[in-house]
Amino acid sequence: MDGRRKRPIIVVDGPAGTGKSTVCSLFAERAGYCCLDTGALYRTVAWLAREREVSLDDEDRLSLLCGDILVVVDEAAGRMRIFADGEEMDRRIRTDETGMAASRVSRLPGVRRALLPLQREAGAAGGIIAEGRDMGTVVFPDADIKIFLDADPSERAKRRYLELTERGEDAQYDDVLKDMSFRDEQDMTRSIAPLKPSGDAIVLDTTRMTREEVVQSVMEIVRSKTAVSHGSSAL
Ligand code: DC
After folding, report:
1. Ligand 1 mean position, distance from CA 232 (Å)
2. For the domain that residue 185 is a member of, what is the CATH number?
3. What's the domain range around 210?
4. 1 is a domain residue
5. Cα-based distances in Å from 152 to 12, 89, 127, 227
6. Closest Cα partner for 181 from 149, 152, 146?
7. Separation of 219 CA from ligand 1 center, angstroms?
8. Rounded CA gap, 31 and 71, in Å?
9. Which residues have CB under 6 Å of ligand 1?
């Protein structure tokens, strides 16, 4: 572990619908970590772009918008909070439309560059579990533990469909699958920081696992890794 950090950095990457957000927030709650949901930053850029009528292809203006985003690490709540235009980003950025727009802006090098220091600063003290697409490869390449969650596309679309319908949204399974496949392809083939497991990541296929089983596996991985490197567990 980096000598300036007192507590570990854990990263979890993977495509949409693998349960990263739920698993990371449950882990954070149980282990006393802070959860960094970095997809929310790209979603915020997309939200700001719509509010201010900036084109999703205007790299210069989108990069400037990143300067208006504030990240607050709320240790008591165990998560990072994002503010833009004086408003806290909440459910408004959670729609599939915003997810698709976030994927589009995330292809732009200027936007990725502008969001990098926000993510690194939020994680600097350690004691965080950061989730996204490039946590292990770009943002925290020296993270203590790297996990990559994967699952079959049909299972991921099913989970996402259930999540949307449980929230009362009008969704069709086939549309969810189509949109998710499009977004995965865009995230995996972009030229900068594409979605892929870091060479030193532990890959977990969650297709046949319950959410609780995934959380338990992550806790087990952290326990075994931190026990090996420090002689005692960080949990
Ligand atoms: O995890 P999410 O669905 O909230 O992410 C929305 C989009 O943001 C995703 O399709 C790609 C982009 N993203 C990224 O490029 N890098 C990250 N670390 C996190 C998200």
Report:
1. 34
2. 3.40.50.300
3. 9-222
4. no
5. 17, 30, 30, 32
6. 152
7. 24
8. 22
9. 16, 38-39, 42-43, 99, 102-103, 106, 132-134, 183, 187
Give the number of domains in the chain.
1
Residue 207, domain member (yes or no)? yes
Query: Which tokens is 40 given?
Result: 């929310």
Residue 175 resides in a domain: yes
pTM: 0.94
Residue 228 in domain = no
Q: Residue 55: exposed, middle, or buried by beta-carbon count in 10 A (0-12, 13-18, 19+)?
A: exposed
Report how far ligand 1's centroid is from the alpha carbon of 42 (Å): 6
Q: Among 103, 189, 192, which residue has the most ligand 1 atoms within 8 Å of its CB, making it the best to mutate? A: 103
pLDDT in tens, 157-190: 999 999 889 988 889 999 999 999 999 999 999 9
> Does residue 234 sit in helix, strand or coil?
coil
